Amino acid sequence: MNLKSVSNFIYLAAAFGLVAVACANGAESAPPSNISSNRVISADVKQVKKPRSLVWQDCIGAGRVAEGLRAGWRQQLEECHHEIGFKYIRMHGLLQDELGVYSEGADGQPRYNWQYVDDVYDFLLRIGLKPFVEFGFMPNALASGKGKIFWWQANVTPPNNYAKWDALITALVKHWQDRYGEREVKTWRFEVWNEPNYPGFWHPPTNTPPRDAYFELYEHTARAVKSVGTNYLVGGPAGAGPVWTKELIELCQQKILPLDFISYHAYGLGGGPSGLDEYGNQKLYLSPDIHSVAGIVNSQRTIIEKSAQPELPIHITEWSASYSPRDPIHDSYFSAAFILEQLRRTEAVSSMSYWTFTDIFEENGPSPRPFHGGFGLINYEGIRKPAFWAYKFLAQLGDTELQNADTSSYVCTDKNGGAQVLLWDITHPTDGKVSNQDCFFKSQPTREKGEVTVKLKNLSPGNYRLRIYQIGYQQNDPYSRYLEMGSPTDLSREAVAELKNLSAGKPVSEKTVMVGGNGEFETALPLRENDVYFVSLERE
User: What is the DSSP letter of 403?
Assistant: First the structure.
């Protein structure tokens, strides 16, 4: 469908009452509302803002290391790295028994086995990705208790012997140094545990406060890492939300402990910044504050600036609209605009690691159907979700950002004289009053919001290839078609091919345009709620 067809469809649908109201209103259909016909995005090629932020590209998440032994997982990761450019990857389960890293003989002596970890890490480095190492969870032979989480039974208790824990971490880091070289390993990051403030991920002894138990683990682990290489980067606390920032910095000052970064997680649900819905049993609500993720992400900057380490980097090692791997918001076209809106407002941190790149993810067991609300940018059959295209369009922006007063857009130029505009509408689909399950397990036709006009000045005169891409309802939106199919448990090969074709990132409009001697370019686009547009002008 070209732009003219899109526009005609919108206005015809409005005229006949076919455009549905968002979930928040609970109606099947109504006249269009929230019309905004005067939005203008204007930029001058000569008014440079800065080199554009690449915080979004720094890191991506994955379920657990053992999934990295699979061919499908590797294929999708390679796609994401090649097309989006992620530099690091963070995963759970590094020390999980299924990888055989740690065991003990009959004499109680530790036995190490790195073969499966090497297999995964060799692959990562071969394709150009670096590990953002998460030390966790506890090998059963070294565990102090039986606390478990996930289908794959991760042990989440402290070590029963810190001398053996220290030796394990030291030996593993030393192995990496020997295998990959100090020059490589010093570019990695080492994070201690995952969400120790959340009871599901940390079971210390009954009479030990979780923070105190974690600080003991952090002290031992950080010292073990630095015993191998003083320039290796270690940090935490990988909190479920921003926690213990001030306290961890003060602990490290008092005990002269290494601390190279602060890390925590941010999710967009109401009722708290993070949590767990392992089996998808809860009804979850997007926060009424559409910018809640950005607010959580930016909340610790002032605390750090007032501390003894005011320049500490912040790494958001997990973030998404929802912390549930069974939340259909992840599959919806809304997720693309939501992702871009958060990333636009979080450029002051050092990384924003989206959770996760793939639906090959088994915290709660194998996925029950092709679209099940999984975290991934790509579903397990290789169908690219709208979220994938949000990242892909970010990757296609030029290196130089231009000044631009519109807060939900980027205007950039590249070294070849081309220009790109990435813009989106952000409209809350539920106002936090309707659960994500009640909203997004049903088709969500959209409403029109008028037009957005793009104006560029001082382009070099000449011919340009104009390509316009779109994410939105029925545009790079395989999930809506999947719902039309009746949400089948299994898809035929023909259906998979159809859904892949519907989310192939093809332009909705492509033509050659001439920029005259005045260097000006202008176009108007029909805009619907939570639409995303990528406009590319390439010199011919």
Answer: P
